[in-house]
Amino acid sequence: MAKSALNRSSHRPEGRLIGYARVSTDEQTTQAQEMELRSAGCETIVEEHGSGASRARPALARLVREIGAGETLVVVRLDRLARSVTHLLEVIEDLNTRGAHFRSLSDPIDTTTPQGMFSLQVLGAVAQLERALISERTKAGIKAAKAKGKLPGNPGIRERRPEALAKMTAVQKAAYGARIQATASQWLPIVRRMRPDHTWDDIARFLKSRGLDWTPERLRRAVKWMVAEGLADKNLLRKSPPRPPEDRLMTLVAGIHSSNPELTLREITSQLERLHERTPRGGTKWAPSSVKNLIDRAKRTGLLKVA
């Protein structure tokens, strides 16, 4: 009886296994990871090239957003997925909200089994303890400094010394530039294709549909930095001409279509109605033909690639 109960509790769900393989640079290959993932039963594998220290993972974001209930995201090792325990727990929480599961082939983490869930809970406790220890050490350091008559922080910054402020500004600018250049290959080609014909709002919405989290203000600032550094054409910053409402709809439909090309026209109409988007004529009910017209326009303008 006990054995049969254990087998039932350890039974894996019947859903699809989806592999995620990541390497840090374009020169590296995911071939070894793909072999292990296919051996584990993954028919679909999503590849990504990106640093483990960065959370800018459009392929992973799209995978988590589109994964279905009962399906399992599989990785060879935990470090292929997350840059920290906190990041790992956030990804798994996103999967749980969609009814999906997670499994690492080289680690005892498998959210489809009681043993794997226990290991995940241990990781969560470790992350919480780590945050508490850091907080306690910080508080103790500040208290000790105050007891010696010292104030926390950089004295030069606190006293507003010009040389210290200039140094801090230079460091911040360098760090900002490094972050922008590290992800530019993911979003700058799209900006070059769409500017200045489309507004920053339209481009930010299009990028978000592809898993890239940009606001219009942050995007404009990033492009302004690229132009100042001679890495982008200044024409990207030209003011956009007035655009009719259907052009905004074209950008939105193109973003939905490019994020998931398998969606049917009727499925896209359902998404538009859930977003309470009005048709080009101001109606509330979308027709597949209207969606097709917008997709065809997006292809003619170069917003979508022609298959």
From TrEMBL:
Gene: hin_2
GO MF terms held by the record: DNA binding; DNA strand exchange activity
Keywords, in A-Z order: DNA integration, DNA invertase, DNA recombination, DNA-binding
A biological-process GO annotation: DNA integration
Gene3D superfamilies registered for this protein in UniProt: Resolvase, N-terminal catalytic domain
Lineage: Bacteria, Pseudomonadati, Pseudomonadota, Alphaproteobacteria, Hyphomicrobiales
Ranges for domain Resolvase/invertase-type recombinase catalytic: 16-149
Recorded family membership: Belongs to the site-specific recombinase resolvase family.
Name of this protein: DNA-invertase hin
Active-site residue numbers: S24 (o-(5'-phospho-dna)-serine intermediate)
Species of origin: Roseibium aggregatum
PANTHER family in the record: DNA-INVERTASE FROM LAMBDOID PROPHAGE (PTHR30461), SERINE RECOMBINASE PINE-RELATED (PTHR30461:SF2)
